[in-house]
Amino acid sequence: MIARAAGDLMADVDAAPGEPFQGEDLDELRANWNVAPTTEVPIVLERLDDGQVLRELHVARWGLVPSWAKEISVGARMFNARSETAAEKPSFRAAVKKRRCTIPANGYYEWQKRLGPDGKPAKGTKDAPAKQPYFIHPPSESENIWFAGLYEWWQDPQGQWILSCSILTAESPDPESDDKTLAELAAIHDRIPVAMDRDALDAWLDPSVDDKDGAQALIERVVAQHETVAATWELRPVGQAVGSVRNNSPELVEPVASLF
């Protein structure tokens, strides 16, 4: 979920607007309270220009489309990249080495499955939905989460270049964690997007790291610190309306009584 202006995002990480590419316009970046795969999202990346490192804000399609893909629709299945396998997967390994980015959000949604008496996921009914959605966010509305991401350029049959991205994920924290927030995150889902503190973000974006071993070391670095970031978050039960992408308004993050 993105609810901050492009200028605020750039100021937060000292980035500049990226060079204008066809189909990309930072002025069109608007608050989105229900981001779904294939939606355009802001990303920050670093690139080398005559030996100078440039940190830039761009707009990308969420769902990475590898450069060799035959059609753009493959990106709808590649909105997340598993940290354990990204460096080896054909869809992500080139981006892991040379095209790393960070994807900002003010929070994100996750769904907790309701369990039946047998311990298995219960079937939903009108009065008892199968899942409880949560809005997971930093304690301050002025803070951003900066997710570790990957990006790629893909050229469509008409010759237009499409920028796309994916978010790195890791296994959820130990459900027996002494930290209340981490234990709650583990209870909601078995995967978690990898968030970065500022030092990890700076290292992750560094374009001078462009080999397999160096990139793998960066994956291990950001995964090693992500629970420290996640432990600062808050979890808020929200209404079922967030389950439909047709709904997109600030009311989606209003708290409700938890079903469980």
Automatic annotation (TrEMBL):
Its EC number is 3.4.-.-. The keyword Protease applies. One of its GO terms (biological process) is protein-DNA covalent cross-linking repair. One of its GO terms (molecular function) is peptidase activity. Keywords: Covalent protein-DNA linkage, DNA damage, DNA-binding, Hydrolase, Lyase, Protease. Gene3D superfamilies: SOS response associated peptidase-like. Pfam families: SRAP (PF02586). It comes from the Bacteria. Belongs to the SOS response-associated peptidase family. This is Abasic site processing protein. It comes from Kocuria palustris PEL.
